[in-house]
Amino acid sequence: MTPAVRVVFVVHDHQPVGNFDGVFEGAYRDAYAPFLDLLERHPQVRVAIHTSGPLAEWLDERHPAYLDRLAALAAAGRVEIVGGAFYEPVLAMLPGRDRVGQIRRYREWLERRLATRVTGLWPAERVWDPGMAADLVRAGVEWTILDDTHFKAAGLPDERLDRPWITEGDGGTLAVLPVSERLRYLIPFAAPEDALHHLRFLGERRPGALAIFGDDGEKFGVWPGTAGMCLETGWMERFLRLVAAAPGVVEWCLPSEVVRGADVSGPVWLPECSYREMTEWVLPPAAQRLCVAARRDAAHDPRLAAVAPFLRGGSWRNFRHRYAEAAEMYARAIAVSDRAERVRGRVGDDDPVLDAALRALYRGQCNCAYWHGAFGGIYLPHLRNAIYRELIEADVLLDRLEPPAAAAAVEVRDWDFDGRPEVRVSTSQLDAWLAPARGGIVYELDLRDWRHNVLATLDRREEAYHAEVLAGPGGAASVVDGSRPATFKEAGLEELVRVDAARRKMFVDHFWDLDVDPAAVAAGSAAERGDFAVGAYGHALHRAPDRVEVELTREGNVWGIPLRLAKRVVVRAGVAGIEAAYELSGLPPGFRQQLAVEVNLAGLPAAAPGRFFRDDEGRALGELGSRQDLPGATSLGLVDDWLGIEAVVTVDGGAAGMWAFPVRTVSQSEGGFEGVHQSVAVMPRWIVEPDGEGRWRGFVRVAFARYP
After folding, report:
1. Bridge-partner residues for 488, per DSSP?
2. Which of 165, 247, 287, 465 has CA 20 to 30 A from 265's CA?
């Protein structure tokens, strides 16, 4: 007898590279292990499970019995193991060589560890680009899973989304399963009876129809409000009992079975897309609000309902437009990938050092730190730090196969693909990346011994949900996830809603009024009197065997008064530090203005033991989340004993002192709105008065040493 409806149930379990061990452990305890318990209690149920590579490696180390249980279920035909790219990158952001490399590497790992054949792929965040199809086929993928949003955007109606489809790229074909958005919201957030009713509806519409559920395994015990609701005595147990009590209604199927059956349609070519919410999150705040409103209005207006599927929102790639920090991480990963490919051409595929470098590169492509929606994502410093740690590790390994040509090397190119050149200076101690066209700043500073980028900062910027933060609890409807009430994880978050006019990087040049309020500077509301912080600088290089000097110059103005600012940034071989010598020229008699050079340091948490400021005599001045106003200070140390690092900012004796303050953002996370410490801003400042030739000079140095 043909069952009313065939159900393909795909669970995606994932923890990102760099997430805290306690988060892994909690998710294992609350969701992953109980889900296997549930399957073992219900032998009639068959599901597909995708476990991301970072999580699978952690499980293999901490809970190998879990993987043994998974392997046993796979051997019994109860579970199909779904592959993917090893470290859960969004495939659309990778070069083709890395797509294929990650997919093949993970399939080999899974087949070796779980003793089962892997034919399918879970694409991270279901981000699809039609150009990916050929690479997936080349990597051995037979089927994948995407949202029905993709198919509707291609013009397919609901009634044709109850079957697998074929798509094609460069002559290669693979099957694609359309995930039901309706089921994603019913399971487990509606009554179990409602979910079964929807399955009955699909079967009545077309006997033997396919109903595909695909979503995060964390929603069965980890997401807020789901613990205890979904498993042993909760939602899933009730749902499975209802299904068992309705024989002939549901047949549990594995994806590889249905894609090899006769009920496959196509071919169809799907547009660049992701699930509906993702295409909203990627838009700038104003556009995001308009998109959400347009979709809502279209869904409730009979005149517009037919066009609603074509309101697609934005492209996932534009998270690199929304967040300059994502563009910087992406560009860094591309630089490492290009270098690894060059080295591969010289040493071949079997070199163990190259293999280790590729593993680090692939780990540095894990998607979570590259975007933001209803989860912390790019706002979480530990995820950004983890990305840079892996990319720096890959570069250090590649140095063994491709030694640097000089003790202090420099290369100029458009590293971040913005149409303007950036400067990279490399030594055995650090990599410094400068952007002459964007304020003449240092935007990345990698400490190689620590595998740490001290400029993995995040600017404060507008988000669509900030209106809700400003309105307070219960004061505004969410534009991020209207299905969940907002939670405020601390009081006073409205004070953190700020927009930075300049980047939170290093050697950012500000001119303030003499009586500017330091609190206004910290809040980002002080009036900028010059055009240097974000202006374009010219650059020239000066090389010596033991150092590289990058001379950055700009003809600008302060209060409309024209002047020339030159800063010579110096990186020395064998020195874990960087310095900038400043010279202002063309100053008129009587000129008097305050110059502050901003230096941000990331990865130094606030309000934590062992993280504190100290003066040049070693006296503690307060934890790194405190504000410091230090008149006349010429040196300030910042200690992080967990990283084992002390950063010391030193200036010349003519400085008026230093300010230091934390940079905190407010962001959306799965637990609600929260404040996040992003960096510490240190601002040496001078009262600029010209000499007899209309000039002024100063310098600032940032040095790093092991602590203690």
Report:
1. 673
2. 247
pLDDT digits (tens, 9 = 90+) for 223-263: 887 877 776 668 999 999 999 998 889 999 999 999 998 78
Element (H, E) at 679: strand 672-688
420: region left, alpha or beta (phi > 0 left; psi from -120 to 50 alpha):
beta
Query: Does residue 470 form part of some domain?
Result: no
Please give the torsion angle defined by the CA atoms of residues 373, 374, 380 and 386, in that order, rounded to the nearest 10 degrees. Answer: -70
338 and 267 within one domain: no
Distance of CA 471 to the CA centre of its chain: 27
Q: What are phi and psi of 49, to 5 degrees?
A: -130, 125
What pLDDT, on the 0 to 100 scale, is given for residue 157?
Answer: 93
Is 211 in the same domain as 333?
no
Q: How many domains does the chain have?
A: 3
Distance CA 592, CA 372 (A): 43
| Percent of the chain whose predicted confidence (pLDDT) is above 70 | 97
Q: Domain boundary residue among 453, 485, 517?
A: 453
Statement to judge: residues 153 and 238 lie in one domain: yes
362 within a domain of the structure (yes/no): yes
Question: Which residues, including other chains, have CB under 8 Å from residue 609's CB and lie 6 or more apart?
Answer: none
Instruction: Dig out the tokens for 377 from the structure.
Output: 């994502």
Tens digit of each residue's pLDDT (9 = 90 or more) over 170-213: 999 999 999 999 999 999 999 999 999 999 999 999 999 999 99
Same structural domain for residues 398 and 327? yes
Which active-site residues does the annotation give?
Answer: 125, 216
Residue 474: inside a domain? no
**DSSP-assigned states of every residue in 473-501:** TTSS--SS-TTS---BSSTTGGGG----S
302 belongs to a structural domain: no
DSSP-derived 3-state class of residue 16: coil
Range of the domain at 680: 498-706
Looking at the structure, do residues 60 and 176 belong to the same domain, yes or no? Answer: yes
Specify the DSSP class assigned to residue 32. Answer: I
Question: For residue 483, is pLDDT > 80?
Answer: no
Residues of the chain with pLDDT > 90: what percent? 88
* Other beta carbons within 10 Å of 131: 13
